[in-house]
Amino acid sequence: MHNQGSKPEQDGQIDQIKAQIEENLKRVYQSALVEEVPDRFKLLLQQLKDKEAQQNGVQK
Amino acid sequence: MNLAAASDIDPRDQLVEHLRPLRAFAISLTRNVTAADDLVQETILKAWAGIDKFQRGSNLQAWLFTILRNTYYSSLRKSRREVADPDGAHAATLSVKPDHDGRMAFTDFLRAFDTLSDEHREVLILVGASGFTTEEAAAMMGVAAGTVKSRASRARKRLAHLLGLAEGEGMFSGVDAVTDAVIGRAAAAMG
């Protein structure tokens, strides 16, 4: 829909708000990205690896 | 690091490098750390067991994200016990406006973001925030690129609407919505 009666400063404001939405979306992801990953996931991967190595050892 | 050996590396040994973005995606999608961590755990187990399905040389992170979002949606389907709020009726009371310095407060933004549907949160995070291309997001979501674009567009409009920036109705046509909202809040405070 055409933005009737829109003034230049309003267009600028819309762009500004759109930019802020994008900025905030990035912030949602980035703020989660900087969080330290709990050790339990690294431990889980290590356990899976050990288990696999054990199984392979048994097979050989 | 020898690049030639990269394809010889067991992708399972690379999973650890993707834990952080994987968890960030899970948190962004579920907006709940406990649920996100359960999802990450399940994704790791599935990825480990199904590593043969991973095409070596392709994007491991995208593959992991795909497993995670599929796991999330199938668990949602199993437990559709929450009262659906497709029109965001309870969100209608949300009226967020820029801070005194003209910026919208992040907490207010999060409230609006949390009210979006899962599909809308997903598309905005994948395309807008985590830096995947439309094509990559389309592959992850199992839809056409055009669908990703239109969904992202609807999601942004929805978000703007929730933020009290009635975009769909011709953003700021007539009375400036932000000014209106600020006046409304001021009036409420005074009343």
Chart the SSEs and their pairings.
The complex is a heterodimer of chains A (60) and B (191).
Chain A: H1 8-33, H2 39-59
Chain B: H1 11-14, H2 19-30, H3 33-49, H4 60-78, H5 106-115, H6 118-129, H7 134-141, H8 145-162, H9 177-190
Helix pairs in contact in B: 2-3, 2-4, 2-6, 3-4, 4-7, 6-8, 7-8
What gross morphology of chain B would you assign? Answer: globular
Order of helices and strands of chain B: HHHHHHHHH
Q: How many alpha or pi helices of chain A?
A: 2
Share in β-strands of chain A? under 5%
Please report the number of helical segments of chain B.
Answer: 9
Greatest chain-chain interface? A-B, 34 and 46 residues
Superfamily at the CATH H level of the largest domain in chain B? Winged helix-like DNA-binding domain superfamily/Winged helix DNA-binding domain
Count of DSSP E strands of chain A? Answer: 0
CATH topology heading of the largest domain in chain B: Arc Repressor Mutant, subunit A
Report the order of strands and helices of chain A. HH
Radius of gyration of chain A: 26 Å
Shape of chain A: rod-shaped
Q: What structural category characterises the helix and strand content of chain A?
A: mainly alpha
Are there runs of chain B of 5+ residues with pLDDT below 50, and where? 85-95, 167-176
Q: What's the helical proportion of residues of chain A?
A: over 70%
Number of domains of chain B: 2
Task: Give the DSSP E fraction of chain B (strand runs of 2 or more residues).
Answer: under 5%
What is the average per-residue confidence, as pLDDT of chain B, rounded to a whole number?
A: 81
Q: What is the subunit organization of this protein?
A: heterodimer
Largest sheet of chain B: none
Task: Describe it.
The complex is a heterodimer of chains A (60) and B (191). Chain A is mostly helical and 60 residues long. Chain A has one domain (9-59). Chain A has helices spanning 8-33, 39-59. Chain B has two domains: 11-80, Orthogonal Bundle (Rna Polymerase Sigma Factor, Chain: A), CATH 1.10.1740.10; 92-191, Arc Repressor Mutant, subunit A. In chain B, helix 2 packs parallel to helix 4, helix 2 crosses helix 6 and helix 4 (60-78) packs across helix 7 (134-141). The longest helix of chain B has 19 residues, at 60-78. Residues 85-95 and 167-176 of chain B have low confidence and may be disordered. The interface between A and B is large, with 34 and 46 residues.
